[in-house]
Amino acid sequence: MAESVAAKGLTVVEGVTCPFCGVTCDDLEVHVVDGKIKEVKNACVLGKDTFLHHLEGWATPRIRGKPATVDECIDAAAEILAKAKYPLIYGLDSTELNAQRKAIELADLIGANIDHTSSVCHAPSLQAVQTVGISSCTVGEVKNRADLIIFWGCNPAEAHPRHPSRYSVTAKGLFTPKGKKDRMVINVDVRPTPTTRMADAFIQIKPNSDYEVFSALRAMLKGHELDQAEVGGVAIDEWKTLLDKMKSSKFGILYWGMGLTMSRGKYLNIVALLTLTQELNRFTKFLAAPMRGHGNVVGMAQVLTWQTGYPFAVNMSRGYPRFNPGEYSVADLLAHGEVDAALIIAGDAIGNFPAKMAEHLMSIPMIAVDPKESETTKVATVVIPTAQAGIAAGGMAYRMDHIPLVMKKVVDSPYPSDHEVLERIFAKVSAMKNGGNGAPASAGRVRG
Amino acid sequence: MSERRFILITGRTMKQGRSIHLGKEAKEFLDEISTLQMNPKDIEALKLQDGGQVQLKTPHGSTVVKLKKGDIPEGLVFIAYGGFINALVGPDTQGTGMPNTKGIEVEVERYG
Amino acid sequence: MGRSLKIVGGEVYDPANGINGAVKEICIEDGKIVDSCKSPAEVIDATNLVVMPGGVDIHTHIGSSAVNAARGFRPEDHRHAVFAKKPGIRSGVGFTVPSTFATGYLYTKMGYTTVMEAANAPIGVRHTHEELLDIPIVDKGLYILMGNNEFILKYLKAGEMEKVKRYVAWLLRSLKGYGIKLVNPGGVEQWKYGKDVEGLDDKVYYFDVTPRQILKALSWVNESLGLPHSIHLHANRLGIPNNYLTTLETMQTLEGSRLHMAHLQFHSYGGENWGGFCSKAPEVAEYINAHPHVTTDIGQVVFGDATTVTADGPWQYRLYKLSKNKWYNADIEVETGCGIVPYTYREKSYVNAIQWAIGLELFLLIRDPWRVFLSTDHPNGGPFIFYPWIIKLLMDKEFRAEMMKRVHKRVLSDTSLPNLDREYTLSEIAIITRAGPARALGLKHKGHLGVGADADITIYPKDSDREQMFEHPAYVLKDGEIVLREGEIVDSRLGKTLFVVPPDVGEMDPEFKAEFENFYTIEYENFPIDIQDIPNREAIPAGATR
User: Fold this and answer.
1) Mind giving me the DSSP string for A237-279?
2) Quick one: CA torsion of C156, C157, C163, C167, rounded to 10 degrees?
């Protein structure tokens, strides 16, 4: 909250929340000179880049490739959405709560499918939790208590750079005053990564074998002797040693990532992991947590859950929320060529989707709302640039462990925020659909 | 020319994360997401060239990438997230909503 | 607002002002109840209808990080109830954990106008406020979990009571909360080691303080800050056979001070083990009858599906092992935890049937309706939409008897319920669902229809089937505007978030900021909530006379 003017034209904004990854550091110090970000302290290199390169690669407003005003683009977008029979609203990970709320309200209005980046990221984790539950904790518990940390199928050194120092590997806490010396770190992955270097032990596992491995560990935990010599390309004795370490820890945590969600078995890999960690609670305090990333993806899952009951892959086409991963997930909707219009907000769909999905997206009227140019804006029917959330627009965001934090606005933007654009699109679509009345009473709050 | 099957691992890298901010057109970003890492023993066995080009193929499509030797187990290849892998990943999610983005089988052969 | 309205010809139940069924005109202007209207008033003809203040729910779990985790955890439950959008009405889902818009509409449809979100970890209160903004119509407040707060434990360990007081005031002020909540004090901190507390004098690891010390300290802080509501306590040993002893000991420990015992039904069990599980409702009720310092809400069990969601981590672990249902647990740094387990109460399960009976026994044996309030500890005992069913059970002893025949026969043989003939009157129902909770909360403008009260009013049909009556209000007014008419929501405006303003008892010490950042993983400056983030709000000053 503290701002200080130290020199001419310089504003130092303290306690800034970084919008880039799920670590959601809130201790950044951003130096702004004459309205431009000049320096960022405390951030990792990804966070620094996010702020320092804020002005680069901006999207420009256009319709079918031709320059247009933002107003014209909003009109064009509203027309597309009002006419659509089975629209998709997608993205929403790199934006803030009020924009996300408005997107859901719009989905309610037009009977859209609404999904977000979790769908191709940690949705399998969310599904697994829905299936068996989870024994978990916030990162501060890890910092204060964990004496065993396992990174399984994730690479925080490259994807969540400050996680190890702020929360896990070297963080010093109430019962871990010596930081790294008070804990053991184990890395399990199909290949060594920079995370391996910070671990005390590395287990190299065969790709697509995690489900068998977790099942074997569960069986051994229950006292069964296994017939095979190895599971997942690793000797049984090595797994036994790992299990013993887990059982004899005082407070163990297993962090997992895309290595488990994206490989064979998908959510079943995580069901096996979660069940194992729950069962370990018979022996000691043991927890598990997903390494969520992509900015405010957790926030989108939160508000979608409280407003519709479901965390992703929601369909509103019957006038009420329905949930069916594999049917209403963005991947399947696009792969089956079902949607006839798309609104992509603060998320690069095309750049991250399998080709067939991207193909369908390019064949239908598509609106891209984004601060930056991307594969999506390159081919969108309508492009609406916005103020980047967390930098030129404030709002609420969530950390990977579901803790809510506020993102500040540190600089101005010539473009409106995601929230404002969605509000204006909503108002126009509502007028087109209802003849100007009957707009649902909005609960969204405007934040500065 | 020889081809062989590998398991393709995709993931985030620091470089890929950094270069996103330069706008996805920027050279640094394109370089990082179009570079395939392979174990030197595999490179030798297939008579490929470190720094040369290879073609990756799956039933869904193919893409040409640059080859670089890396600290990666034999039989696996790694490339950072980004547009280059999209041609290789099919749309089938086996009803889970999640495409097969990691651990897929690819054919690797020399290109050019 | 500013509208003028008169409700004419209705039978008014306003027990706080001694009105029990008299036909009386109610005048409303500018959102408040007035002596007479200055402007020409619209008239609602309430002839043959019953007029009550809007309902006040003193203990429910409707919106918080924990509730949202439960909501996301129960997609299978949501399919049991879907709510299509309508002009002015957002769509929604949910049976035991409804989505936010549906929650507001469903409470309004029962004639409730104020609800208190009962359990909130400080670091998640920001989330609660945002979620509450998406619950339309009803006014809301939130209690802040403090019974396992490591700063409080730390100050208690050092005997620094003034620091505890300053810290609590700082929490309430920074987070805009309504009151102090304790859940299994000491036990949830022990759960961070996989343990629980067994009794009030067990020491918590490292901090070496006991549940008894925590109870007394927070009770003292609460009264010394002059907060409108007493401490709100989910006592130790919830759900465990023979826990009634802990319950009695807890209430005895706090004699001489106000105390609200939450969901008392879950704390009134006897028996050495599950096999010997039995009701100790008579013993607990007897204590409460003899000791006016205690208020309570019952946490009545409703047969069918429920979702248990509570900060009582160790209890939820036990329930997971007992029920073999899926189990969600999240320990929260420095503060507390949360556990979620779906559960189904079965009529033919002797434990569930006796639990059901215990709730009713407590209602019927506690004589003073001003100290016993209707709740199901939603969604732990069952969904709040069944309040009308509970009301019917309380008012209609034949209906109760029919129910007793359906459930496990041990209810007839092993509880006092078959011998309890009492039938609640409409006036008593008005007390346990409105006037009593409002008074216990210190909400001077709620729960009654006297001049100056908020014009939150429910008009019910007179139906001898009390479940039908309380399920189908003819009108609901909120701040003097008609929000429900003929069973339909006609206005879904946002209600207010109520919060207390504690007195100024001094700032935290300068070293607190560093301590905060040592314990937590966020910046001290980022912790407090900006009042602007709560656009519709009402501050209740502490220290106001009750």
Assistant:
1) HHHHHHHHHHHH-SEEEEEE-HHHHSSTTTHHHHHHHHHHHHH
2) -70
Confidence band of A128 (pLDDT split at 50, 70, 90): very high
- What is the number of structural domains in chain B? 1
Name every chain A residue with its beta carbon within 8 A of the beta carbon of C334: 140, 144
What is the bridge-based pairing of β-strands C82-83 and C92-93?
A: antiparallel
Chain A neighbours, 3+ Cβ pairs < 8 A: B, C
Q: Which two tokens stand for residue A117?
A: 């980046």
Report residue A5's pLDDT band, with 50, 70 and 90 as the boundaries. Answer: very low
What one-character DSSP code corresponds to residue A178?
A: T
A329 at B interface, C-beta within 8 A: yes
> How far is it, in rounded angstroms, from Cα B76 to Cα B10?
10
* Residue whose structure tokens are 């951030």: A43
Q: What is the pLDDT of residue B100?
A: 87
Chain A residues in contact with C205 (beta carbon < 8 A): none
Range of the structural domain that residue B29 is part of: 3-110
From chain C, pick out residues whose CB is under 8 angstroms from the CB of A321.
78, 82, 91-93, 99
Rg of the Cα atoms in chain C? 22
| pTM metric for this prediction | 0.96
- Ordered structural domains, chain C, with CATH: 52-489 (3.20.20)
Q: Give one DSSP letter per residue of A312-371, joined into a string.
A: S-EE-TTSS-EE-TTTTSHHHHHHTT--SEEEEESS-HHHHS-HHHHHHHHHS-EEEE-S
Q: At residue C183, does pLDDT exceed 90? A: yes
* Cα three-residue angle C37-C42-C48, rounded to 5 degrees: 100
**C462 and C502 Cβ atoms separated by less than 8 Å:** no
Q: Give the model's pLDDT for residue B12.
A: 87
Share of chain C above pLDDT 90, in %: 98
Is ipTM over 0.95?
yes
Rounded to the nearest angstrom, the gap between the alpha carbon of residue C303 and the centroid of all alpha carbons in its chain is 20
Q: Which chains touch B (3 or more CB pairs under 8 A)?
A: A
CA atoms within 13 A on the CB side of C188: 33
Position A434 scores a pLDDT of 76
Question: Which among A195, A203, A191 has a CA at the least distance from the CA of A241?
Answer: A203
Indicate yes or no: CB of A440 within 8 angstroms of CB of C493.
no
Residues of chain B found within 8 Å of residue A125, distances taken between Cβ atoms: none
Spell out the CATH class of A123-290: alpha beta
pLDDT band, residue B23 (cuts 50/70/90): low
Average pLDDT on C503-513 reads: 95
Domain locations along chain A: 59-120+295-389+414-434, 123-290
Percent of chain A whose predicted confidence (pLDDT) is above 70: 95
In CATH, which of 3.40.50.740, 3.30.1020.10, 3.40.50.150, 3.40.640.10 is domain A59-120+295-389+414-434?
Answer: 3.40.50.740
Range 345-374 of A in CB contact (< 8 A) with B: 348, 350-358, 372-374
Write the single-letter amino acid at A59: A
Given a cut of 90, whether residue C545 has pLDDT beyond it is no
Q: Write the pLDDT tens digit of every residue in A332-373.
A: 999 999 999 999 999 888 888 999 999 999 999 999 999 999
Mean pLDDT of chain C: 97
- With cut-offs at 50, 70 and 90, classify the pLDDT of residue A294: confident
Q: What is the largest CA-CA distance in chain B?
A: 39
Question: Is the pLDDT confidence value at A442 over 80?
Answer: no
Nearest to C93 among A139, A321, A398 (CB): A321
Specify the CATH number for the domain of residue B99. Answer: 2.40.40.20
What is the least distance, in Å, from the CA of A38 to any CA of chain C? 23
Task: From chain A, pick out residues whose CB is under 8 angstroms from the CB of C62.
Answer: none
Cα A385 from chain centroid (whole Å): 21
